[in-house]
Specification:
Helix content is 45%, strand content 17%. Helix 1 runs antiparallel to helix 4. The chain is of the alpha/beta class.
Amino acid sequence: MTPLQEQLDEITANTRRLVQPERMAIGERAVAELLSSGIEDRILPVGAAAPEFMLNDASGRAIRSADLLALGPLVVKFFRGRWCPYCVTELEAWRELYPKLREAGVLLAAVSPQTSRQSDFMVGQHGMPFPVLSDPGCAVAEQFGLAYTIPEYLREYYRSILVNIPFVNGDESWRMILPATYVVSQSGRVTHAEAYADYRVRPEPEEILAAALATVRR
């Protein structure tokens, strides 16, 4: 299977071929500003107690993190939404790896600000076998240190390309999250934490699985 980052780099290369440089520059500015804000350094770190949460899945059913952790270590995959091709590609990579994850006794939950209805579309279209949870207003992501507000110039850009964040997320806050990957042990401690201000960079699922397996063995 092609490494995830290679797949994401191909999306970036294709985008650069299709989109005018001055429009690409808007996204580059947003990434640079987010990076310089220091948000990466403020995410919930390894060793911290992971916040407990209860969020609705794609069918509207409430899912508790405590119930998942009762069954095994948990990978919590925060993603921006079904409108983001990088997020979809990443979750499809996790879909392919999911049988190995479950065989090892590890669970996975994907969390985004999008509504349960949007998650339902995503699960149906991409065949996601794991819970896809809705985090209204980025409340849980905030506890993990991942939430921020999209600046006005980027809102205008999203509108121009018909990415309707308020509609997708079900509110007018324009709150968004860093894509992030956490591994939480059954004791509720964070054993792996990874998030990037540059949404085009994601960890390899196989590496996260190895970190989760190390948690199982401890």
